[in-house]
Amino acid sequence: MTSYDALLLLSFGGPEGPEDVIPFLENVTRGRNIPRERLEEVGEHYHLFGGVSPINRLCRELKAAIEADFAANGVDLPVYWGNRNWTPYLADTVRQMKADGIRRAAAFVTSAYSGYSTNDQYLNDIARAREEVPDAPEIDKLPVYCDRPGFVDPFVDAAKEALSGLPDGARLVFTAHSVPLSQPNREHYVAELERVSRTVADRAAPGAPWDLVYQSRSGPPTQPWLEPQITDHLEKLHGEGVRAVAVVPVGFVSDHMEVKYDLDVEAADRAAELGLAFARAATPGTDPRFAALPRHLLGETP
Ligand SMILES: CC1=C(CCC(=O)O)c2cc3nc(cc4[nH]c(cc5[nH]c(cc1n2)c(C)c5CCC(=O)O)c(CCC(=O)O)c4C)C(CCC(=O)O)=C3C
Ligand SMILES: [Fe+2]
């Protein structure tokens, strides 16, 4: 079905113990203009969870789910996994692929959208890792998949499920990671987020109002980022008489720290203070429809 001889799962990486937290944050923010206080604050989020981000476990589970999907559908390709910011580092994975005789791999990235942070930076990661490995395998990133049923359908079900536990008239609030307004290709990222949010809203709660908001901003306060921030938005909705919100994290593929802290702790606490009923929709995670996406995308490659 394809001329690729491996699939590479490419992700962000996260700490797996308290001693990893600072070195991980240093890796993420190297060469970037992130205030020291923001780093200390984010470090605390990780320490609340024992210094362990869920993201590496989620990647191991997704890798296993993709392998199961391949096996069940007669796709005989090995699956490798590498990260940008923590072990297993991508360059080490590429070195292993080379040692195993892999010549040409397709990369499935744990980010569904166009834009710099969500696409271009992963292309840079691949280029940099390949430069570190003599005679490295070719690696092509699979296409942006935010509009694919394997990504959208699990969110539709999750949005319905979140709404089902809330009183009538609950507002659907879609959320994604904020980025600086100056970030290259930001307009593509935003256009896709709006499109996915509209699709999910139309299917989960036809005709009901919905909003797209942002979370997890960092950077200096003087630098403009995508807004509104979810916590400010919850206050605004409350002021308008909304009494319940279903938050749907369409910007992410799994329940990593930006979801487990910034939504399940920070946004949920703000909602509780306001007296807003709050439900957070699940992310695709290891949904079999999501785990089948790499196979579907590979099926379209020459
Ligand atoms: C668009 C986007 C995604 C979604 C696409 C994708 O999934 O890739 C994403 C995902 C993630 N971001 C993550 C963690 C962090 N991101 C940071 C910083 C930043 N993120 C940015 C954007 C995004 N980030 C930006 C513009 C910055 C500023 C610095 C820079 O321009 O790079 C910082 C530094 C501290 C802070 O400022 O928060 C941390 C620790 C984790 C891991 C979570 C875990 O451990 O479970 C994940 C999945
Ligand atoms: Fe981030």
Automatic annotation (TrEMBL):
Annotated GO CC locations: cytoplasm
Main location: cytoplasm
GO molecular function: ferrochelatase activity; metal ion binding
Taxonomic superkingdom: Bacteria
Record-linked SUPFAM superfamilies: Chelatase
Keyword terms: Cytoplasm, Heme biosynthesis, Iron, Lyase, Metal-binding, Porphyrin biosynthesis
CDD domains referenced in this protein's UniProt entry, alphabetically: Ferrochelatase_C, Ferrochelatase_N
Binding sites annotated in the UniProt record for Fe-coproporphyrin III: S53, Y122
EC identifiers of the protein: 4.99.1.9
Subcellular location: Cytoplasm
Family in the record: Belongs to the ferrochelatase family.
Stored HAMAP family: Ferrochelatase
Alphabetical list of NCBIfam families matching this protein: hemH, PRK00035.2-1
Protein's UniProt name: Coproporphyrin III ferrochelatase
Species assigned in the record: Actinomadura meyerae
